[in-house]
Amino acid sequence: MTIPLPTAALTTALATVRGVCPHDCPDTCGLVTQVNAAGRAVSVKGDPDHPFTRGFLCTKVARYLDRVYHDGRLTTPLKRVGPKGRGDFAPISWGEAVATIAAKFTDIAASPDGPQAILPYSYAGTMGKLQYASLDRRFFHRLGASLLDRTICATAGAVGSDITLGTRAAIDPEAVAKSRYIVNWGSNTSVTNSHLWAVMHHARKAGAKIVTIDPHRSRTAAKSDWWIPVRPGTDGALALGVMHVLFRDGLQDDDYLERYCVGTAELRQRVLNDYAPHVVARITGLPVETVEQFAREYGNAQRLFGGPALIRLNYGMQRHGGGAMAVRTVCCLPAITGDWRHPGGGALLSTSKMYPFNERYLERPDLIRPGTRTVNMVKLAEALAGELPGPPVKALYVYNANPAAVNPDQSKVLTGLERDDLFTVVHDLFMTDTARYADIVLPATSQLEQFDIHASYGHLYVQVNPPAIAPLGESKPNTEVFRLLARAMGFEPQLFDTPDEELARQSMVGGGGRVYPSESAFDGVSFDRLMEGGPVRLNLPVDYAPFADGNFGTPSGQCELFSRRELDAGRDPLPHYVPPHEDPQTRPDLATLYPLQMVTPPVPSFLNSSFVNVEALRKAAGEPVVEMHADDAAARGIVAGQSVRVFNGRGRFRAKAVVGDSVRPGVVVSFGIWWNRYTEDGVNVNTTTSTAVTDQGGGGTFFDNLVEVAAL
Ligand code: SF4
Fold first, then answer.
1. What is the pLDDT of residue 512?
2. 607 CB within 6 A, ligand 1
3. Phi and psi based region of residue 658 (left: phi greater than 0; alpha: psi -120 to 50; beta: remaining)
4. Ordered structural domains, the chain, with CATH
């Protein structure tokens, strides 16, 4: 099924199509694609009429046509004709590809191991509601395949935020213009959320102070009024120390706490007893004065800066052993100060839960067979090695993802992908590191070639993305591929034959069940209106402050500083500090061998592992580097620009040393995620990262990684 192209694209000199950037980024930019009379896209620009993204794109998507018309685009299905990993393939027809996959899946499903020996593997290579999660989920649920727990990015934060608030921490991002004390906490906002940064910048011109809490002097930290270089994985302790000062100095909002929160007295006692600034300073590596000053400024934002405080909390604080607890703890702060009351005040993790899409309709979880096992995607290395409970993984179907580059414990993942008895399918635009290990490779469409409907996790607009051009070669979107596979497997047509537009229309009906007052958020945002083109704001008030009057999504309806649910589950009902798994303070044995804490933020020129094969962007990225403090470099005889080996017990990779003061002593930063084929030694930073998961939510702990660095 292919959505008809806009007629104008075929009949006028330059047709214009308004669409949406699909990448895993909170900004969800509006795109304007111009298409010539031959049906070729000639430009992709930011949509100037998008109220939030306002016409500018990041450097990656500004070069989107380099990706769409890249020489390496896959245009036909392929079958492997050489050893796994070498990249030798021959073209085949879609008929042969689909028949091969269906026959293999049928055989495995009928074997004693059953269909759970088939594992889907996907993440957010495209974020549209249909191509991210719809017929693919229906297909694997109907098949009886293992379930995949998609934890690699954000589940620790989701769980942590949910404990305190009953949903994701969120405010109206446009109201950030009214914030006057802006804290980027584990968030490189100017790079990874650049349109929100523009609003922050606007607020700063009106008097706001911008603070960034990050172990690395990121571009955002460098542009901020104050950089607080917290030790990796200790954000929760800092938040507890801030609470200590707020309660000690009477900076709490007693009225808000009384009306809308439970557990104030218990939390107050906990932080006054256990988290004095000198204790927190020892954990976080910050001076006592920094903890005190930050807490006092945060608690006095209205008086000192003339408006509310906002915390933009993000993924940096989640990717540690205590990531869920850190987010849970930070989410308590705006309730203590009462900042949730004010437009622009509070905390912002994700706006995704503001959208009442009917995901049950799209994904049909009712098709899941009782007792089906769930595999945590962070544990792919163990899954492929047969180390998890349940049947062995005999088939792997990868789409919207590139686990050979992205997953932790990379060497073990690659060993698993090399297994001769593993049948692997990869559906992608390019011959990624993972695709090289596939038995069958299927060509995927780009966003310009497919229909979708988009929410955002960084603003409040919904928009459809009509195809601007015809699919390149024989490429197909996920929805179409799963229709073909379902037909070949003899699955019920009524589950799969609904056209994409109709799936999108139905996804806007009957969602509800959200904790914000957003069951009505689609009122007036009809599908037909979206099909007229451009973004439409959710039906939420201007400067929406969702928790101004309480209205939390917890069982009590209150902000749960004390969590009865946690107590009932046998866990501490109050926020507390959970150290990283690999922490020199708690693991001196490990730190003797590998004394440096390494964090791995994204390369600004790439988006996760997307765009690494776009030459101009790869050139801009340079080469893999490791940033280290001058004292640490000197102690190892390392000078700036030197090639070094970064290693631990899991693996090693080469990088160029960048020496200076962008990190504190004892911390190193190496940017991910390079494709292995573009590195000197054929591996990337994930050869050292661990498959250990966060305290709750099963999240990845990519920033919780002790290493040593040696000169080469
Ligand atoms: S990746 Fe983000 S900033 Fe870049 S165009 Fe897409 S949505 Fe906008």
1. 66
2. yes
3. beta
4. 7-68 (3.30.200.210), 78-151+372-537 (3.40.50.740), 156-349 (3.40.228.10), 588-711 (2.40.40.20)
